[in-house]
Amino acid sequence: MQSEEDISTGVFFSCAVSATRIRGTGRVEHEASSADAAGVAKKVILAEPRGFCAGVRRAITVVEEALRIHGPPVYVRKEIVHNHRVVAELSRRGVVFVDSEDEVPEGAVCIFSAHGVAPQVRRNAEARRLDVIDATCPLVTKVHQEARRFADAGRSIVLIGHREHEEVEGTYGEAPHEITIVEKAEDVARLELPGTAPLAFLTQTTLSVDETEDIVQALRRRYPSIVAPGTGDICYASQNRQDAVKAVAARSDLVLVVGSRNSSNSLRMVEVARSLGVPAYLVPEAEALDEGWLDGVRTVGVSSGASAPEVLVEELLGRLGRLGYLEIETARTAVEDVVFKPPAQLSAGRAARVPEE
């Protein structure tokens, strides 16, 4: 029997890297030499942690279980996670991605993405009698709860995040009359909130502590009594992946981050590496690697965003191997053991199925 953690490991997590033998030491031994024509070793340093976070794993599990229980088509509002390969594979298996719940046939199964939705979306879905399954990341749900709690207490709320991001749209919808969105530290000076007003701030979960520090400090200087959210609201995954990229960048001539162009956390990882003076690029697919980037490069750092499946990393490693980067070292900066349970209705559906003989 598959465990909850095994459900979404098939097509998204496994892909053999050509001509490699993986050792328990975290290195990969290749049959070919890993030295260039001058005899200098060429290697890859692989960041750990990288790739899927617990919220993404849970969201993909939700969709796969919904397909098993209900059969296709299953509708998903927006992309379940921001990765083109995940969306394409699920589409192939009968998932229909829509921009609005209004596009879902009445009474059909509709899954809300990991980024969460505003209350109005839930009301619309209820009016259309949709069979809703909520794949919202539990960390996002906590921010929604904080927004309601602050609003109920009579506080105005400053929401730190990207205005067009789906998560921010959902959080804003919890208290639209109380929330003001701030994207950068310079925005704080333009806030039209009285200094004596009871205030609180919240942050987009996919932003790390480093990303929001300047904005938070600007808020505290202007509004000394502003209330902060609980420390448990911070997404561990974004911070861990950025810390890992920093560690890898310090030892690399070039950093490659695997992720889709609409993945904000993947894009930020590229920015983090560049801020350390290391050339860095986003690589949505192995084919997107520009061999010109590798001129004079002996050590390549590789990581992936929180919504990027491991299969994409392995495909990139395979291409790098064919280009002579045959030695692979794993650099671990943190251990992640967070697991989020699936929604109750899916757990019940799984329990009700008759096991195969």
Automatic annotation (TrEMBL):
Binds 1 [4Fe-4S] cluster per subunit. It is an enzyme of class 1 (oxidoreductase). [4Fe-4S] cluster binds at C53, C137, C235. Isopentenyl diphosphate binds at H82, H115, H165, S263, S264, N265, S307. (2E)-4-hydroxy-3-methylbut-2-enyl diphosphate binds at H82, H115, H165, T205, S263, S264, N265, S307. The active site is at E167 (proton donor). GO terms for biological process: dimethylallyl diphosphate biosynthetic process; isopentenyl diphosphate biosynthetic process, methylerythritol 4-phosphate pathway; terpenoid biosynthetic process. Its EC number is 1.17.7.4. One of its GO terms (molecular function) is 4 iron, 4 sulfur cluster binding. This is 4-hydroxy-3-methylbut-2-enyl diphosphate reductase. It comes from Microbispora triticiradicis.
